[in-house]
Amino acid sequence: MFCIEAHFQDFGGVKHLAEVISSSRFACYCWGKISGRHELVRSEFAMACNARWVFGNTSIQMESGFGHGLPTYDWDGRPPELLTVRLTRKHPKPLKAKDRKPSPVTVKLCMEAAEEAINGKLHEPVKTVTEWMDGDCIHNYLVTAPVTRAISLVSNLCSVFGLENGVGSYEFLGEPSQLEGIQQSGHYRFTNFPPDCWSWNAQFKTPFALAAHSFLCPVPNVEGTRLPIAASVLDELGNRVAHCVIVKKYLAWKLGANEFSPRTAGNYLLISRQKAGCAMFVGFEQYADADPSAKQFTTVATPVVEQIGIKLKKVSNIRCAAPN
């Protein structure tokens, strides 16, 4: 199977593509005010993939599991089961001496909030990262948690630190009918994001997407036999789709009659729609010394692609969008 990523200017485009691709990884990007933790019990928060809540100089960020990385070999196609919850506390200048370093009390409170949420001990300690910005000191407290318990952890942090009357920005994942319910709920806005609570799809500036960040985590959503049908729908939508790619990773490249490369994360095929035509990227990775070399791959691949009028051109790095 392949992964199609698409970013839609309107919800009509989502519904049109959903007629040929069935997926629970359609996304909407929105924001809204939040008075307190009691609002987090609403059903849509179980669909949150990335989220950010701002309460003055304190914020909480829930970040998808892409940062934990996919396995080197033979990924099963399922999205990461862990994510990161980050409590951020900004200490404006002039700084007090105690604010120059992460607070041991805050670390302890974060740990207790997390262990209550997961109903057990943390496998990893609370991590701290300090940033300096224009003389202000910003301390980050990071906890890794199961996806299913993340909102409980956020709720606990709001309670422990008395966080109320803030604003939140969200990436919700679900089926089109679920996203339509979020749209119609009246709780959220899809435009004019606050400057301190930006859209999680700021790069493409669309309110809806399918399989965003696909190069980092290309969860399959379409059979190869249905690719032409899906591609024709995307062509029909035209400019209503701001960005579109097709990705397949963990390929086993055929290098000889009975020789195949291992299925590594760096073995991929990516087709990206451009302003004129499409661009195709092919990846090969020699992860271990015992794996086939890049030279073996190019020796085999070059004559194959030349048969269809394509020349291989080495690219040192493919830069792909990651969550903010």
Feature tags:
single chain, 324 residues, alpha+beta, Alpha-Beta Plaits, 2 domains, 12-stranded antiparallel beta sheet, two-stranded antiparallel ribbon, 6 helices, 14 strands, globular, disordered C terminus
What do you see in this structure?
By secondary structure, the protein is an alpha+beta fold. It folds into two domains: 1-35 and 165-324, no CATH class; 55-160, Alpha-Beta Plaits, CATH 3.30.70. It is built from six helices and 14 strands. A twelve-stranded antiparallel beta sheet has the order 6-7-5-4-3-8-2-9-1-10-13-14. The model is unreliable at 319-324 (pLDDT under 50).
| Fraction of residues in helix | 10-25%
Return the string of H and E elements.
EHEEEEHEEHEHEHEEEEEH
Structural class: alpha+beta
Largest sheet: 12 strands, antiparallel
Low-confidence stretches: 319-324
Tell me, briefly, the overall form.
globular
Distance between the termini: 28 Å
Total helix count? 6
Q: Approximately how much beta-strand content do the residues carry?
A: 25-35%
Topology, please?
Elements: E1 3-8, H1 11-18, E2 26-34, E3 48-55, E4 58-63, E5 82-91, H2 104-118, E6 127-133, E7 136-146, H3 150-160, E8 166-174, H4 176-184, E9 208-210, H5 227-237, E10 241-249, E11 254-256, E12 259-260, E13 268-273, E14 278-283, H6 294-306
Antiparallel strand pairs: 1-9, 1-10, 2-8, 2-9, 3-4, 3-8, 4-5, 5-7, 6-7, 10-13, 11-12, 13-14
